[in-house]
Amino acid sequence: MKCSYVKQIRSLIIAVRQYTGTQVDVIAYSMGSPIARKAILGGQCVDTREILGPPLTELIDTFLSVAGANYGSALCVVPIPVGTCNRRTGLHCESAFLQDINNQAKYEGSYVFSIFSTADEKVGFRTCGKPVAPIKGGTGYVKKDSLSHDQVMDTTHFLQMNFVSKHLPK
Q1: How would you classify the pairing of strands 24-29 and 60-66?
Q2: Which of 23, 54, 58, 140 is paired with 167 by a 20 to 30 Å CA distance?
Q3: First to last CA, the chain
Q4: What is the pLDDT of residues 161-170, one digit of tens each?
Q5: Beta carbons of 128 and 69 less than 8 angstroms apart
Q6: How many angstroms separate the Cα of 69 from the Cα of each of 22, 44, 54, 133?
Q7: Is this prediction's pTM over 0.90?
Q8: Distance (Å, rounded) from C-alpha 30 to C-alpha 79?
Q9: Which pLDDT band, with edges at 50, 70 and 90, does 83 fall under?
Q10: Residue 155, pLDDT score
Q11: Cα(81)–Cα(59) distance, integer angstroms
């Protein structure tokens, strides 16, 4: 989860805000969830030490994590020095990147929701003894029991729309 990815998402959020003049709704999928959370959090990039700037919390109405790897991925139980599972910017549950975004709470927006599945085969359900998807301090979440990783994104459009438009799951 490179700083360059975080900066791209951060720039997009700022551009949408400047164009619309209203708060932005963010729907982040899979690995995009921790990247978007860091874009909103701001501060310093873990890999390059670049300064991103202050939090964008006030610009965000709803932040929705869909099948998000917010606390890592069960596939990264064994840290690999390079790639997706590394301990610096990867999805290992103890990576510096994940510790950075998870050491604070309630910065993602006015409303923070998560949709995830206990049957997620890519992110998994638990790693390092805790669930990987629900965001600490969030407004709410919906847990599905039989959806694959891709199905969480592809079959929950109604839930996603309700979280964004009504701030409710139903």
Answers
A1: parallel
A2: 54
A3: 33
A4: 999 999 998 7
A5: no
A6: 28, 20, 23, 6
A7: yes
A8: 19
A9: confident
A10: 98
A11: 36
Sequence ranges of the domains in the chain: 3-164
Give the C-alpha separation, 167 to 83, whole Å.
36
What's the per-residue H, E or C state across the chain? CCHHHHHHHHHHHHHHHHHHCCCEEEEEECCHHHHHHHHHHCEECCCCCCEEECCCHHHEEEEEEECCCECECHHHCCCCCCHHHCCCCCCCCCCHHHHHHHCCCCCCCCEEEEEEECCCCCCCCEECCEECCCCCCCCEEEEECCCCHHHHHHCCHHHHHHHHHHCCCC
- 50 is written with which tokens? 């670049």
What's the length of the chain? Answer: 170
The pair of three-digit structure tokens given for residue 38, joined into one six-digit string: 């860091």
CA–CA separation, 13 and 57 (whole Å): 11
* Cβ neighbours of residue 119 closer than 8 Å, sequence gap 6 or more: 125, 144, 145, 146, 147, 148
Superfamily of domain 3-164: Alpha/Beta hydrolase fold, catalytic domain (3.40.50.1820)
Give the mean pLDDT of the chain.
Answer: 95
